[in-house]
């Protein structure tokens, strides 16, 4: 692999982003994960003239008729995007009182900012698969990618896109299933990918089967239309249960189990469940679990077993199966 390093003035990179000849977030990149404090400290680094690690770019598509082409930012999107936000005065960037915005800098300071030299390693014209491999290698020793971010670098296909679509449904935002960190690090997508893979197969250990589904349905995923309608139907049923926002059912492990078991009954078995009766059974059961979790009294065998299966190693297959059996039994009591 022939790579070369050189300096580029920051203004050249910012202009390239502005006219879309430099793509800061190719489809295999992870989401932006820097919080505002990270961005502010990095901007200070540049304004004070300190260096930062090299960024990686690669050649993108070329128009053979006009000779115009684009480049992809393989690694460094956090840094360059932050500087672009500062340069453009983006609302996504909140500056403290002691840090002037770009437009309020003295002209000399603006020039110094724009003339800042960035070390750029040019990977040249590589296939997208080679670029993805480089991206993974680079991040294996720097700010670590989590499992879904690695999968995102390898798979950009239909199953991944579907999991992302599910994770963006209003229900998950309305009931605060995911934290802001979950969303930034794509843990929401991994969670939904696991959820979908489970209802399409069975309980598995942690996220071990997600890659299988990402690979199998990378090119085509014909079932996604019906599957999305089914997912929305189950989420709508859960919403009709009208549990308070801080209820245990919205905790990730508990929600995972409830969703899967409701899917089995409502969709797979076409059982006619009535929301008020299901609410009554679940409220009684989870109320007992909460009492046990508070150490106030012992529970029934099922309650004790469920609580232990949700307390530690909650994503292990055995514990998922245990919780599933108990919730299924609870739901069937409402029939």
Automatic annotation (TrEMBL):
<dbReference type="Pfam" id="PF03235">
    <property type="entry name" value="GmrSD_N"/>
</dbReference>
<protein>
    <submittedName>
        <fullName>DUF262 domain-containing protein</fullName>
    </submittedName>
</protein>
<feature type="domain" description="GmrSD restriction endonucleases N-terminal">
    <location>
        <begin position="23"/>
        <end position="155"/>
    </location>
</feature>
<dbReference type="InterPro" id="IPR004919">
    <property type="entry name" value="GmrSD_N"/>
</dbReference>
């Amino acid at each position: 692999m022939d790579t070369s390093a050189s300096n580029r003035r920051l203004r050249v990179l910012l202009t390239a982003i502005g006219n879309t000849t430099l793509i800061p977030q190719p489809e295999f990149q992870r989401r932006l994960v820097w919080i505002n404090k990270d961005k502010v400290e990095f901007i200070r680094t540049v304004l004070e003239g300190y260096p930062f690690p090299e960024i990686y770019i690669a050649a993108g598509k070329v128009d053979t008729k006009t000779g115009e082409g684009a480049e992809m930012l393989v690694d460094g999107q956090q840094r360059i995007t932050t500087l672009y936000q500062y340069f453009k005065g983006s609302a996504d960037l909140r500056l403290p009182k002691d840090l002037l915005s770009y437009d309020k800098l003295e002209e000399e300071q603006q020039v110094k900012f724009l003339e800042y030299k960035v070390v750029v390693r040019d990977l040249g014209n590589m296939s997208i698969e080679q670029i993805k491999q480089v991206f993974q290698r680079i991040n294996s020793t720097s700010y670590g990618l989590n499992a879904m971010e690695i999968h995102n670098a390898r798979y950009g296909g239909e199953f991944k896109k579907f999991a992302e679509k599910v994770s963006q449904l209003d229900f998950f935002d309305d009931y605060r299933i995911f934290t802001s960190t979950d969303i930034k690090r794509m843990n929401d997508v991994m969670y939904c990918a696991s959820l979908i893979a489970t209802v399409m197969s069975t309980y598995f250990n942690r996220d071990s089967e997600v890659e299988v589904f990402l690979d199998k349905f990378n090119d085509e995923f014909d079932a996604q239309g019906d599957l999305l309608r089914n997912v929305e139907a189950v989420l709508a049923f859960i919403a009709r249960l009208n549990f308070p926002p801080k209820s245990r059912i919205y905790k990730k492990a508990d929600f995972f189990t409830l969703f899967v078991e409701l899917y089995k009954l409502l969709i797979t078995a076409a059982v006619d469940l009535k929301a008020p009766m299901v609410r009554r059974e679940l409220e009684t059961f989870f109320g007992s679990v909460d009492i046990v979790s508070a150490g106030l009294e012992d529970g029934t065998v099922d309650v004790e077993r469920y609580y232990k299966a949700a307390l530690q190693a909650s994503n292990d297959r055995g514990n998922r199966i245990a919780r599933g059996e108990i919730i299924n039994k609870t739901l069937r009591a409402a029939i």
